[in-house]
Structure formats: C-alpha cells, structure tokens
Specification:
Elements lengths: L4 H23 L7 H17 L23 E3 L8 E3 L2 H15 L6 E7 L2 E8 L2 E7 L5 E3 L2 H4 L17 E9 L2 H13 L8 H9 L4 H4 L5 E10 L7 H10 L9 E3 L2 H13 L8 E8 L2 H7 L1 E2 L2 E2 L2 E5 L4 E13 L4 E13 L2 E7 L3 H7 L6 E5 L7 E5 L24 E2 L7 E3 L9 H9 L11 H9 L14 H4 L7 H13 L5 H7 L7 H11 L2 H5 L3 H4 L7 H12 L1 H12 L21 E5 L7 H10 L3 E3 L8 E4 L5 H9 L3 E2 L1 H8 L2
Parallel strand pairs: 2-13, 21-22, 21-23, 23-24
Antiparallel strand pairs: 1-6, 3-9, 3-10, 4-5, 4-7, 7-8, 10-13, 11-12, 14-15, 14-17, 15-16, 15-20, 17-18, 19-20
Helix pairs in contact: 1-2, 12-13, 16-17
C-alpha cells in the first residue's frame, strides 16, 4: 500500500523532534518541553507506525525496546583493541607517569585531560552512515559480547547521530553505569517484592546489560557516558578534549566534570578537589583518568603491553575491602533501639582503618546470613558509617558461630520488645536505661509533660553527665548546693528551678502518662487513656485485649503500653515519683454516657469569647472527641469563633457542618 507523502514527512519530522528532545533530556540535562508534550509526540509516532508498518525502521525512537529474548550473546571482535589502563595509587606514582611521558617526548610540560573514572561497564558502539548497528561489551579487550538490543534501550545512547557532518563509520567507546538514585530505588523495589538486590551500582549495571531479554534491561535506570573513539572514517580534531566535544554535538553524553589541565600539578589539585566531592556526585567513581590531550603526542608515546603510555587511572582509596567479622555487640541508642555492631579485624578502607561497622538491625543480619567468623565485605564512603554489605560464603570455615541476639537490654537489663513486622529491638526500660536517660528526662520535663520551667536540654545534659540525676525521680531530690555548681547556674537560678520542680508535683493524670514517654503515646492518646481508665493503677494492670477497646488505641500502641508497665524498673521509678510527692486529682472512670463524643472529630478555628481554644479542646477531649488541626472529609464539624479563616472556608466547600459558640456550649453540656 502506498504511503501518503504527508505521512512520510510527519513521521520523519516526529523522529527528528523526538531525537532532539532525547538529546536535550538525556545528554544535556536541559529538557526543552514538558514530559507530557514528549509523550504526545512519541504516541503520535507510534500511532502512525502502527497504521503504516512499512515506515517502521530500526533507528526509530519508538523501537528502543521490543525484540524477542536472545538465546545467547554472539561474540564481537574489536577492530581496535579496547585496552586497559595502568593504575596509580599515590601522587608519587602519578608524577612518575608524568616524568616518563616528558622524558620520552623530551618536553617540559604536557597538557592533560582529566575525566572521572566511572564505576560501570565499558562498551563499544558502532555507527554506519549515522545509525547504530552494533553494541558490544569490552570483554577481554580483543573480543566482547554483542549486546546491541540491550544498549538500544538506554536513552543517552543515540540511535541516530545528530547533525549532517557525521562520519560514514564511527566506533564510540564509553561507560554504561547506574546512577546512585536509580540504584537505591531499584534495590528498594526489589526488596519490597522479595527479589534479589544488587550489592553496588557497578554490579547492577553489569547484570542489567547481560539480560537476554532487552525488555528487562529497559526497566533499569542505566546511562552511558562516552570517553573516546575506536574507529572513525573521517579525520577527527587533534586534541582529545575537542573530540569529546564533537561527540557531544553528535548526540553523546560526556562528563561535565571533564577538564583540560596545563600541568601535572593541576592534575594533583583536580584529584583532591574531586575526591572531596565524590559523595556529592550522582554516580559512583573510583578514581580519575588522566590522558595526554594532544593526539600527536599520544602517537609518539605509543603503547606498552596491554596499556597506552599516554594515560593512567589515578585510583581513589578503595571503598570496599574484605575482612573477618570477629564479634557482634548490640548498642542501645538514645530512643532505646538496639543496633548490632560488627567488631572487625582492622582493615584499611575508604582512606581510614576500620574496626567497627553497622549491621543495622535483625532483618539485615538475616538477609546477609552473616555469622561470627565469616569473611565479609565492608563498604565505607566518605564520612558514612562503614557497613557490612556481603558475606563471602565461599570462604566460610566450619567453626563460624551464629550471632546471639540478646533477650534483655545490655545496658539496664530491662526486657526487650520487638513489634511484629518491625526489624528493631527496643529496650523497655525508658525511665531507667542510662542510654536513654537524657532524652527521657528532657521529655519528662517538657512543657506539655510535667512543665518544669527552666529545666532545658543543656541543663539536663549537665545533670546526667555529672551523675546528679539517674532517673526522673532524682529531679525531686536535687539539693540546691549541687545545682549552683553547674554552668550558668547561680543561687537565684537554682532556687527558681527547685521551685519549678516543686510546682510540677501537682499535675494531671494525662500529663503524667504523657511524661512517662511510653513509645507512641502522645498527648491525645495519654488524655484518652486517663479518661478511659480514670487511675494509673487501672492502666498499669490492664491487658492488651482491654486496651484495644480504648478509642484510637491499636495493637501496636497497646503492645508498647503493656511492655512499658510490665517492666519492673519503670514501675519502681513511678513509685519513687509518687513517694516524692508527684500527684494528680483522683478521677473516676468515665461512663459511656460521659464519653458521648467518642468517634467524632472537631476542628476549632477563630477566637472564642467564653473560653480559650485550648480549654475548648480539653473539654471536647474529656468527652471522648478528637480535636484535629485541619479540615478533611472525616471532620464531624468545625467550631468557628470570631475571625475564622481558611478552615471555615474549606469546611463550607466540603459541606461540613459549622458550629458557633452557642452550639459548642450545648455540645459540652453533660
């Protein structure tokens, strides 16, 4: 069937536009149109190619993915070998390289090109008459594998070269890599599905490129950055840096960190500067490649064995090394969470000697399958805490031992809890555990808890550091003579603090429950518990089953409450506080009639004349209501005072009832 000429023109125009947009987006990082417009162009092209299948061609941007899985990869022989590079591991070795080049060339200064050494997979791309015809891995340098279909799925690899001055035949070389963000996202998704994760971005890139089904490769966030030319039918510029810029014009991505440097001293500075920014880069690098810029000088320098004399890779300190896991200890954090810490045979990694590494949590120990005595791979990047990333199972000996998980807190001997579905172990001795002491006392003294005016964070830290306070109960026995010795604490300040501590003895049951710092028991839940149980003894002696009958208390919160009060150390501190004189008005357990607003949610807005909004909130909560800070479809009603603002407008737009102050007073009548 004859294809209308206007369709042929439109298809050609669409392909040019889409290729140009791909170049702007994937190579220049400078998109010219929104994603929605790009999608419309691609859909239109796909529609026309479906209507006129005779127009479909391999170089169409619509054909990046879709080939049937291959049974195996064919072998490709490189016309020009893809050689490896010699390495330098110190400034002295880099300067020796420079000296050798200068002596062979008999010159005093050499201009170098510096490029980050991407931690990925080297590939070769062959173009004929401007179209990609073959892509291959480096392999052994002489022969690689034909992975054309997989490479076609990578958007930063042009299927058709841009411009009109393209060579008839061009082989481009570059590195395929997986950016850090894409790597972490891929692993998170794989872990959520229970699938295998990759150890590092390099392995992820290699595994993605060697998929027999290119449709799988297409789902992986891969990029390609070119670093040179193997074969070219046309004459190229005389400098390597100029060649890279020409490749960029033809549609290839080049590294933005690439620089031309006038001397080896400038190379030193470049190395240190990029090493300091290594962790901020969006991709992994393991060093810097320095190349003589002028092609004429390169030709004169030539090659030795399997490496060019005109280039060297100055490697960064290794971020991964192998060592032995000698023991595992569990450390208690300020919130009570236990973190397993690997004690290692010291190993030099990431520029420092490492003897400890984090194992994160019990789930990570299980995922790694690690045992004491195992050979393990340690990863350290920049200032990030070193971590165990893999067990070398092949080197496991017969005398390895399972990691023993503690059954009680290693600091205070309180019981440990682990909520179903969570990876963390936590100490239940929140009031007595020295690892949690500072945070527990800060919370206890805070304004919405016991409201001890003047007992700020820095003062709490001094009291704990000087061992004047071991639990919240010790606050009520602090001698003035001890307080005046503290930094910025005079006689008057010490007396004011003692007076504030004394005032705090008279509180409410809800405030006291909140002050105890039971995990996930906030102000609202504390008030609900106080209203529901009426006394602390009733709460202490309750069960998880009973707690589940309390409004807004779910299984996790119920479990935390029972675990907290089950711990004898916590009960001892509570008794000490009561003995010190901390008390609250007795209240009877409310009846269901008194909790007439259970299940209802109100929002307060504007200025009330008969009471403050805080008073109104407390009265509503005493009747079992929830008082929210924002309006939603779940809001029962909005109580509006004078000068009500956006909350009133939103309630009106959602059709939610509006109550005034008279309605509020009627609501509060029991």
């Amino acid at each position: 069937m004859t294809t209308p000429s206007h369709v042929v023109s439109e298809v050609e125009q669409l392909r040019q536009e889409i290729n140009q947009h791909n170049y702007r987006y994937y190579v220049l990082d400078d998109p010219a149109v929104p994603d929605a417009e790009y999608d419309r162009l691609l859909r239109r092209l796909q529609q026309l190619e479906q209507e006129y299948p005779q127009l479909v061609s391999a170089d169409s941007p619509s054909q990046r993915v879709g080939a049937e899985p291959a049974s195996a990869f064919a072998t490709v022989t490189h016309e020009v070998p893809m050689l490896s590079l010699d390495n330098a591991f110190s400034a002295d070795e880099l300067h020796d390289f420079d000296r050798r080049c200068k002596e062979r060339l008999d010159i005093t200064d050499i201009e170098y090109v510096a490029e980050p050494k991407l931690d990925g997979i080297a590939v070769s791309l062959l173009y004929e008459r401007g179209k990609l015809v073959r892509g291959a891995t480096r392999g052994d340098g002489q022969r690689g594998e034909d992975i054309t279909q997989n490479l076609r799925t990578i958007h930063s690899i042009p299927l058709v070269l841009l411009g009109e001055d393209v060579p008839d035949r061009l082989e481009v070389r570059g590195e395929v890599y997986m950016p850090k963000a894409g790597f972490h996202q891929f692993n998170e998704q794989a872990q959520a599905k229970g699938e295998k994760t990759f150890v590092n971005p390099r392995n992820a890139a290699a595994g993605s490129l060697r998929q027999l089904d290119s449709r799988i490769t297409a789902t992986r966030p891969l990029e390609m950055c070119c670093y040179g030319v193997g074969v070219c039918s046309d004459e190229l510029p005389g400098d390597h840096s100029q060649i890279l810029h020409q490749l960029n014009k033809w549609g290839f991505k080049i590294n933005k960190e690439m620089e031309v440097l006038p001397s080896i001293q400038a190379c030193d500075k470049y190395y240190q500067q990029l090493l300091s920014r290594r962790e901020q880069l969006s991709y992994e690098i393991d060093g810097i490649v320095f190349k003589v810029n002028a092609l004429a000088l390169r030709e004169e320098l030539g090659f030795v064995s399997r490496a060019p004399r005109w280039a060297i890779a100055y490697k960064f300190p290794a971020q991964e090394e192998m060592t032995t896991l000698e023991a595992v200890e569990f450390q208690v954090g300020r919130t009570g969470t236990l973190t397993p810490v690997a004690r290692l045979k010291p190993v030099f990694v990431g520029g420092v000697t490492v003897s400890n590494a984090t194992l994160h949590n019990l789930d990570e120990i299980e995922r790694l399958g690690v045992k004491v005595g195992d050979s393990v791979i340690i990863h350290r990047a920049g200032d990030v805490i070193p971590k165990v990333v893999r067990v070398v199972v092949e080197q496991r000996s017969t005398d390895v031992q399972d990691i023993i998980v503690p059954t009680e807190c290693p600091v205070c001997s309180s019981e440990l809890e682990r909520v179903a579905g969570e990876a963390a172990l936590r100490c239940t001795g929140g009031l007595v555990c020295s690892a949690q002491r500072k945070e527990a006392i800060k919370h206890f003294a805070s304004r919405r808890a016991m409201d001890i005016d003047g007992l700020g964070d820095k003062l709490v830290e001094q009291l704990v550091d000087q061992e004047l306070v071991h639990s919240a109960a010790d606050l009520y026995a602090l001698p003035k003579d001890d307080l005046v010795t503290l930094e910025r604490m005079g006689d008057k300040s010490a007396q004011n603090l003692i007076d504030a501590i004394e005032r705090s003895k008279h509180t409410t049951l809800a405030r006291f429950i909140y002050a105890l710092g039971v995990r996930e028991v906030g102000e609202t839940t504390a008030l609900t518990l106080a209203n529901y149980f009426g006394s602390l003894d009733a709460l202490i002696n309750t069960t998880e089953e009973h707690l589940l009958q309390v409004p807004d208390v779910g299984p996790v919160v119920a479990h935390h409450i029972v675990c907290f009060f089950k711990e004898k150390n916590n009960r001892d501190v509570i008794n000490q506080l009561k003995t010190a004189g901390v008390d609250w008005p007795e209240q009877s357990q409310p009846t269901q009639e008194k909790l007439k607003l259970v299940g209802k949610t109100y929002v307060l807005t504007g200025t009330l004349s008969v009471m403050s909004r805080d008073e109104a909130k407390q009265k509503l909560q005493l009747l079992g209501a929830k008082v929210a800070g924002s309006v939603s479809k779940k809001t029962t009603a909005v109580i509006a005072g004078e000068k009500a603002g956006s909350k009133l407008s939103k309630a009106e737009s959602l059709g939610i009832p509006i109550l005034d102050e008279r309605d509020l007073l009627a609501l509060l009548e029991t």
